[in-house]
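Batch manifest, entry 17 of 40.
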Amino acid sequence: MATGDQIKALIKAHYDQDKERFKTAALRIAASETRVGHTTLGREITAMIDASTRAKDNVISLANKDNLFLVSFPEV
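Output type: structure tokens
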């Protein structure tokens, strides 16, 4: 089972929108699960992270954090 610190790190990374720290925290959880004998869970977590990373390699994030673009949908 993941430790409280690992879960807190995962949640904090999610809400800080820090994808690399989230990935690192999730991989640490997968490794600790594997170490305690939960190899299937460890592999499943790792596979989820790998699949997510591959799927997003071709996607550009358009988060409007700095108001660098404007999108409008005129009706006329």
